[in-house]
Amino acid sequence: MNQITYIQGLVVEETVHLTLMELCQACSAEEEHVLTWVFEGVLEPIGESPLDWRFGGESLRRARLALRLSRDLEVNPPGVALALDLLDEIAALRAQLLRRGK
Amino acid sequence: MKFKDYYEILGVPRSATQDDIKRAYRKLARKYHPDVSKLADAEMRFKELGEANAVLKDPEKRAAYDQMGSQWKTGQEFQPPPGWDTGFEFTGGDFGADPGADHSDFFEALFGSQGRAGPRATRHVQGRDHHAKVLIDLADAYHGAQRSISLRMPALDAQGRVTLQERRLDVSIPKGVRAGQHLRLAGQGGPGLDGGAAGDLYLEIAFSPHPQFRADGRDVYLDLPLAPWEAALGASVTAPTPDGPVQLTIPPNSVAGRQLRMKGRGIPGTPPGDLYAVLTIALPPADSDGARKTYRAMAMAFDFNPRSHLEG
Fold first, then answer.
1. Cβ contacts (< 8 Å) between A83 and chain B: which residues?
2. Between 20 and 30 A from B280 (CA), which of A77, B1, B50, B310?
3. CB B262 within 8 A of CB B244
4. pLDDT-derived band of residue B92, with 50, 70 and 90 as boundaries?
5. What is the CATH number of domain B130-207?
6. Domain A12-99: top CATH class
7. Is domain B213-301 classified as CATH 3.40.50.12780?
8. pLDDT tens digits for B71-84?
9. Cβ within 8 Å of residue B257, ≥6 positions away
10. Mutate to test the interface with B, among A23, A27, A28 (most CBs of B within 10 A)
11. B6-111 — its CATH code?
12. A98–B126 CB contact, under 8 Å
């Protein structure tokens, strides 16, 4: 009899904190890019120095978005930071419309 | 294979300067970037733009492309003439922004698929982490579920060309997962090289649209229509929830837009989300003598001007 084994996934946002290395690996980004984004406030890790940094799951989404924007549109890091803030604002407004059933 | 007019895609004349091309690409890329645009075909348009830009921004490739002449039109059946690229020396390298991007057949026929395998790794290299989006039902987040999903992944074949491979994965969806969250499946990403560990696969969760419920983070919203008298006098009505119908008490003098919170009935978790019934008021149609008579009686009975706040 064929028994299907279901793969158990971890919800990154709730159970996983990524180190700098893991975040770079997870979104195929260069370490220096991630450092710049932290410096620009795009990503906000917990911890004092890069070696202690732990990134929450939200950082994964933001880092991938930052990477795509800088790569595809050649946006510089302050521009990426601004774009992400504006995209967050648009997402919040869209969620507000959604709650009202628009 | 269909011909692609890269000039038309970027909206520039064939005589455009490299600066014109760069400007046109940037402007359209910002407009159609899938992270920014909500247009349904944004991803397809963006891919096309990237391909057009990859050819036209590179003087070598542009010259080779131009050599095919201007008589071709988009969508025309096309085969590259034999030896069309003789006399051009491609320095190779950066063909597109995204390593592993799947270019059109047209692009592949002209420029091949070289330069996309990424840097050749040496030893013990961990496989790449992969990412995919999956659509699940809201009910799956309420109860947890086991789902078979199929993913299409670009992979290199024996000739070094990129092909899309279908892969089926049986995944447990944990109860309480929310849209925008990522599931990490350890070891399900790209294979490692020379004994290196495989990468991980990240699945980004999204909900398929539901006719009644809208999720926002942990909270879930539902439009609940009421008759005018139910809203005015208060009532006990049956409301659907993802966990099955519940009795809901409508307080008297409820107005449209009021939100009734059903605590803890949103997406489960610690803490669980809430379910909100957003009240709407439905008017019965005045389509019979009896109905019209009732509306006229209401007009007589109320000293009600809904526009009083508009008068100065």
1. 36
2. B310
3. no
4. very low
5. 2.60.260.20
6. mainly alpha
7. no
8. 666 666 666 666 55
9. A100, B278, B279, B280
10. A28
11. 1.10.287.110
12. no
Mean pLDDT in residue range A34-48? 90
| DSSP run (H or E) holding A66 | helix A57-72
B268-275 long-range contacts (CB < 8 A, ≥24 apart) are B268/B141, B268/B142, B268/B175, B268/B176, B269/B176, B269/B178, B269/B218, B271/B218, B272/B176, B272/B218, B273/B217, B273/B218, B273/B219, B273/B220, B274/B218, B274/B219, B274/B220, B275/B219, B275/B220, B275/B221, B275/B222, B275/B241, B275/B242
**CATH 2.60.260.20 domain extents, chain B:** 130-207, 213-301
Residue B71 has φ and ψ, to the nearest 5°, of -80, -10
pLDDT of residue B166: 81
Question: Is the pTM value of this prediction over 0.80?
Answer: no
**A90–chain B nearest CA distance, Å:** 10
User: H/E element holding A11?
Assistant: strand A10-11
Q: Give the closest-approach CA distance of A40 to chain B in angstroms.
A: 20
